[in-house]
């Protein structure tokens, strides 16, 4: 057979349906990051932090992209260097990108080019970094974040991805993580919590009252996040096969169930449904199902949704208030509860509920749930897998923060924290002022009362008006 071009634009091994679905799934995951989380973060924080919070997300996406194609993809999915790490290398060469994709898993052989796989896996990495950012919104020095994001991608994310997905020791041992319950959510929640500890808390006045600047826009961002999860879990079989729609259906079942469970708990205990709480419930359901979305039956997805709306609700609304450690760490958007707690819960439930028939479509015949006869060892493997991700992120995130703080302060000064976006970027989200007032773009006015001034130990700051 002869072709007009060499190599052919449509090689014999290319499955157009698989390729199209994988690119669409990657695009849906990217929509979760931008605009989804950019809108969510920019609207769920105080008005004075809207620009900074959105920009942290956009910067993470851009920096992750360049590093991913230059080094990180092969660290996560390349040839083995260590039991938990691949060999670094570029993934932008012509031959590399036009050749058929290879995944370090004997059960799968995708029918599309490496370029598709590189983009798809990048989308996962980017959303992980942006989820982590939710823990340090409202006070992390933007220059410190600019250094932190690429370092964490290289030294932490790639290790989890290779260990569980890229043929590393946890993958070989049989830990099940269908779509990133551990690689993405436990790692981002744990690293965010640790980073929040080292960065330090927001000002007391911000921590006590940190109301969203636009709840309707926050819901729009949350809706994009939920919708994008169709690609997040639907793309994990690496093909447009039977597991993809099963994963999509289970994803939305769990999210809706958790959303409703969280909302009902708020009504029962507090008398009214919290909109922010409902969004948290939606997220915990999505996170919980991720580790086993394509491997569980519909009834299991409902059960996982109920538990995802209950256990993280308890840790956030009850346990958090009684724990000295949890109170000490200022985790801005409670990423620890919505991602670490829900992610570990989903991983353990997957070890129990993963259906043998579904697992055998993608995994070796020995990997399936305890409920279906695999024995207690699968639960043990799931717990050990979670502990590895948690411990690695505690150590590496701490090391990264220690290195950065010798060159750049991790936290903005109290004077800058009073001002917000204008101090961090010289820009504001909303250029609105009263009728008849002359707008001064060089000055941001923040009104605080005398008690707040005393508790924040600030004697004077540009653009601060003291209200007695």
UniProtKB/TrEMBL annotation:
Metal-binding as UniProt keyword: no
Keyword terms, alphabetized: Ammonia transport, Membrane, Transmembrane, Transmembrane helix, Transport
GO molecular function, one term: ammonium channel activity
Membrane topology: Multi-pass membrane protein
Transmembrane segments: 20-42, 54-76, 117-137, 149-170, 182-200, 212-232, 238-262, 274-295, 301-320, 332-354, 383-408
Pfam family, one: Ammonium_transp
Entry's localization field: Cell membrane; Membrane
GO BP annotations, alphabetical order: ammonium transmembrane transport
Residue ranges occupied by any Ammonium transporter AmtB-like domain in the UniProt entry: 21-430
One GO term describing the cellular component: plasma membrane
Similarity comment: Belongs to the ammonia transporter channel (TC 1.A.11.2) family.
PANTHER family associated with the record: AMMONIUM TRANSPORTER 2, AMMONIUM TRANSPORTER MEP2
Role according to the record: Involved in ammonium transport.
Protein name listed in UniProt: Ammonium transporter
Species of the source: Zostera marina
């Amino acid at each position: 057979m002869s072709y007009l071009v060499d190599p052919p634009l449509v090689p014999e091994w290319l499955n157009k349906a698989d390729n199209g679905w994988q690119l669409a799934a990657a695009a849906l995951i990217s929509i979760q990051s931008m605009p989804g989380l950019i809108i969510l973060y920019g609207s769920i924080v105080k008005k004075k932090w809207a620009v900074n919070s959105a920009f942290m997300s956009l910067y993470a996406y851009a920096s992750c992209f360049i590093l991913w194609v230059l080094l990180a993809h092969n660290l996560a999915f390349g040839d083995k260097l260590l039991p938990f790490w691949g060999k670094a290398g570029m993934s932008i060469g012509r031959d590399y990108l036009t050749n058929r994709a290879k995944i370090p898993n004997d059960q799968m052989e995708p029918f599309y080019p490496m370029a598709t796989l590189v983009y798809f896996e990048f989308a996962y990495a980017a959303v992980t970094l942006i989820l982590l950012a939710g823990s340090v919104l409202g006070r992390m020095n933007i220059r410190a974040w600019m250094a932190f994001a690429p370092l964490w991608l290289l030294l932490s994310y790639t290790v989890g991805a290779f260990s569980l997905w890229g043929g590393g020791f946890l993958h070989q041992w049989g830990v099940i993580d269908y779509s990133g319950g551990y690689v993405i959510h436990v790692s981002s929640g744990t690293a965010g919590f640790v980073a929040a500890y080292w960065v330090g808390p927001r000002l007391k006045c911000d921590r006590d009252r940190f109301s969203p600047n636009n709840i309707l826009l926050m819901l729009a961002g949350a809706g994009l996040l939920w919708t994008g999860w169709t690609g997040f879990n639907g793309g994990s079989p690496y093909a447009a096969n039977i597991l993809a729609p099963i994963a999509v259906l289970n994803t939305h079942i769990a999210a809706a169930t958790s959303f409703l469970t969280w909302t009902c708990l708020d009504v029962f205990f507090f008398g009214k449904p919290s909109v922010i709480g409902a969004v948290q419930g939606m997220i915990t359901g999505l996170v919980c199902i991720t580790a086993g979305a394509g491997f569980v039956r519909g009834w299991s997805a409902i059960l996982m949704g109920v538990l995802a709306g209950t256990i993280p609700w308890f840790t956030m609304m009850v346990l958090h208030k009684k724990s000295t450690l949890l109170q000490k760490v200022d985790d801005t958007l409670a990423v620890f509860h919505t991602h670490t707690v829900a992610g570990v819960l989903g991983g353990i439930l997957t070890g129990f509920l993963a259906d043998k028939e579904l697992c055998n479509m993608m995994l070796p015949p020995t990997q399936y749930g305890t409920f279906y006869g695999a024995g207690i060892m699968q639960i043990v493997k799931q717990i050990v897998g979670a502990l590895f991700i948690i411990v690695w992120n505690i150590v590496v995130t701490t090391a990264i923060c220690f290195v950065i703080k010798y060159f750049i302060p991790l936290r903005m000064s109290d004077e800058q924290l009073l001002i917000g976006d204008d101090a961090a970027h010289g820009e504001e989200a909303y250029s609105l002022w009263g009728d008849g007032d002359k707008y001064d773009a060089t000055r941001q006015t923040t009104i605080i009362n005398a008690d707040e001034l005393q508790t924040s130990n600030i004697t004077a700051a540009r653009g601060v008006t003291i209200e007695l």
